[in-house]
Amino acid sequence: MPMTTHEEIERKYEVDGDSSVPDLSDIATVEPSAKVLLTADYFDTDSGDLAAHLIVLRRRVGGDDEGWHIKFPAAVGRTELHWPLSIGGAENAHDAPGAPDAADAHEDATADAPVAHEDAPVAVPAEVIAPILALVRVRPLRIIARLRTRRTALHLIDDSGHRLLELADDRVEASDSATGTVRTWREWETELLDGAPESTQARSALLDAVEARLLAAGARPAVSASKLATALGRTSLAPVHRAVSLDRASPASEVLLAAVGALVEDIARIDPLVRLDRPDSVHQLRTRVRRLRSLFASYPRVFDRAVTDPIRDELQHLGVVLGEARDAEVMRDRARSLIADHDALVPGLDTRLVDGWARAHTDGHERVLAELSVPRYLALLDSLDGFLARPPLAKDAFVQAGIAIPPALARDLNRVLRSAKSADAAQTEPERVELLHATRKAAKRLRYAAEAVSVGDAGVFGRRVRTVAAAAEAIHDLLGEHRDSSLMQEHLRATAGSGKHTFDYGVLHEVERHGAALCLADYPRALRDLKRLR
């Protein structure tokens, strides 16, 4: 059985031990479910890498969904991955000290109390580790809590027999493996099922209607939305972060370390989404990689280049692999839009225009997944963690940000203008195209350097630096669109051939050529806007 994915939308409520589940029959048909005993072991690294990212890894025995589960935070609710207990094997697994085998788990299910942390290892299947490999790496996984839940559930069913919602009445016993502390509590949990309404408004209305009954019966919204957090005596899995208070008088290194830290955190957050092939995830990861490279390049006097240059090289290697998939995705989507927008002019256009890019994107994404699983990538993540833990400071590290950073931005701005001047002086069109490409990359570097110190915790500079970032972005976007259009024109010429759609390809080529010309027409104005900010 392969991995399955489920979007979990639920609400939890604290409830006293003698409270009765209210009647919900006026909301929908009530169908009682069998009582079940659930036992679950929850895993994390010694440093809590999963909890720090609000990710839960557990092995559950009992119930309809027994097996291995990983829960990721999502825009609404959580995304849950599920594998059967039988997945994987010892030969391709990740050792996790403290977990029982299947027979031990079955014995736990009949015991009178949860069993505390044990030393017997369990092999967490490689398939289960894969989505969180960037967080776990080679660190051992250990049981951090063990839960036994006696669940009594009911389902709400609509007139067509679709299951709308489950209400679970859970009596939980949990042991904290680190301290041996045993905690017990009762909670009610409502979760939308596959037959729930599709619209967000209707879903919320259903949950609200049930909640009103539960609150009237004595329930209270749970302080913690996670059984694991409650088992560990917390209200949240998220670590407590100290508020960052920086300004222009802060050392330049502290400001830039805040920017680097945010990007490294983003990489850890986005990596699992790439592995799950979520929309736009490759683009988001590539952008963070590029921002890191640009930041190290723009501020060489704050951090020791002997350390940052090798990291930049590794980031560049990763960026190239990500770029192959992302560029193919951009061109595939561009081709689709081009055909859709002009279908009235060229009905029945041969979709070969799209197919090649679609295959290239699929192949590129497979290479990305392979790259994210090799030791070289994991070593890069270790290097970034090491950089943050032991920053390699250079001569301007302790200079105030308000003094050290503006000259670096000025250098990057002048770099854009020099490149643009060279492009204007180009003698041939191919030379000009390449120099415009260099100008685009220089503008992107300036944009990233300016945004790094004007937004987020590291945003110690205000409107003027944000204006510089916006002006650089305008140049980058115009020249990027021009380059994409030029590549599509090349593709149209190469694909046209002499078939029945040759004329149609010519029409689309002219559409792209005209669009590219408009970008170049707007480019001088964008360049003048940037020059005024020197």
Task: For the structure shown, list the relevant keywords.
534 residues; alpha+beta; eleven-stranded antiparallel sheet; two-stranded antiparallel ribbon; 14 helices; globular
Topology:
Layout: E1 4-8, E2 10-14, E3 29-32, E4 36-44, E5 56-61, E6 67-73, E7 78-83, E8 93-97, H1 102-109, E9 121-125, H2 126-129, H3 133-136, E10 142-157, E11 163-176, E12 182-192, H4 200-216, E13 220-221, H5 227-231, H6 252-275, H7 281-298, H8 305-341, H9 352-371, H10 375-389, H11 401-424, H12 429-452, H13 463-496, H14 502-531
Antiparallel strand pairs: 1-7, 2-12, 2-13, 3-10, 4-5, 4-10, 5-6, 6-7, 8-9, 10-11, 11-12
Helix pairs in contact: 6-7, 6-10, 7-8, 7-12, 8-9, 8-10, 11-12, 12-13, 13-14
Verbal overview:
- The chain is of the alpha+beta class and 534 residues long.
- Helix content is 49%, strand content 18%.
- The chain contains 14 helices and 13 strands.
- Strands 1, 2, 3, 4, 5, 6, 7, 10, 11, 12 and 13 form an eleven-stranded antiparallel beta sheet that branches.
- α6 (252-275) runs antiparallel to α10, α8 (305-341) crosses α10 and α13 runs antiparallel to α14 (502-531).
